[in-house]
Amino acid sequence: MSAEDTLGEGPMGKESAAIFEDALEVGRHRLSRHPYETSVSAFIAGMYVTFSALATVIVYASVLDLTGSVPFAWLAGSVAYPIGFIFVVVGKSELFTENFVSPVLSAWEGEGSYVDLLRLWTIALAFNIVGVMAMSFFVGEFGLLGRSYTIEGFVTFSHHLTGDPFGDAFIKGIFGGLLINFMSWLVIASRGTGAKVIMIFIPTFLISLIGAFHSIAGSAEVLIAVFLGADVTMLDWFLRFFVPAGLGNLIGGVVFVAALHYLQVSNQLRYFR
Fold it and tell me: What integer pLDDT is reported at residue 4 of this predicted model?
């Protein structure tokens, strides 16, 4: 097999090493961006991903009100969940939880520094949360939800997300981090907007369907309930959801996606470079 065959595209599309090289390019770009650009992009991502929370809970509550079936309402809400992630990824804004693959691989390969990686994580996380809080505030404080059953839906979701012991929330965060970063890998592997949308939809649909935790989108679900006056506090959100889910997302992305895909292609890269 030639280097071109291994690092290029086979009859079924990109080979794994070619995806890896493309991921390195994405990582280099993210690590080298100016902090101002990263912060604005991250704020936008926080706003956009809030639409996943809105779509999921509104669809769930509406279907539950119409049918009385919790499983069917959960399935319908899960179908709506990818909307915000499609906005984020196709619009190329900066989501903290997507930065556990490409930038990490670039840092491991010496094509960016760990200082740059920590700066990217810090800025993206901070401005994602600012964006989520801003959207959640406007939704909760200005009565944009209207119907009482929708408000009850946000209260239900906030209790679900903050009701687990730390360890359980951490494990759910690992699954969320695995799926969201595998989504990033699949998007890099895809050609064309239509294919990318499908590759965004499937993993994010599964995050909601299996009850995995995504620290940013889930924060919107909890914070909207907080601003609606639910019996959930900012401290509940931070300690009972955000911290364990965020740590789990990091482990899920770095260990189960970045590290495993690195091992997958490491021999090929050593041979052909």
Answer: 40
Q: How many CB atoms lie within 10 A of CB 42?
A: 26
The pLDDT score that the predictor gives to residue 2 is 36
Domains of the chain: 3-265 (1.20.1080.10)
10-residue block means of pLDDT along the chain (273 residues)?
44 73 96 97 98 96 96 98 98 97 96 96 98 95 76 95 98 98 97 96 98 98 94 97 98 97 81 54
Q: Which residues contact 208 (CB under 8 A, 6 or more apart)?
A: 56, 77, 78, 81
How are beta strands 9-10 and 13-14 bridged, if at all?
Answer: antiparallel
**Nearest of 224, 219, 57, 227 to residue 153 by alpha carbon:** 57
118 Cα distance to chain centroid: 18
Rounded CA gap, 66 and 81, in Å? 19
Q: What angle do CA 240, 245, 251 make, to 5 degrees?
A: 140
Contact 128, 96 (CB under 8 A): yes
Q: Tokens standing for 186?
A: 């699949």
**Cα–Cα distances in angstroms (integers) from residue 16 to residues 7, 27, 34, 105, 255, in the given order:** 8, 16, 30, 14, 18
Spatial separation of the C-alpha atoms in residues 188 and 196, rounded to whole Å: 8
**pLDDT attached to residue 197:** 98
CA angle 105/27/186 to nearest 5° reads 80
pTM of the full predicted structure?
Answer: 0.92
3-state secondary structure of 13: strand
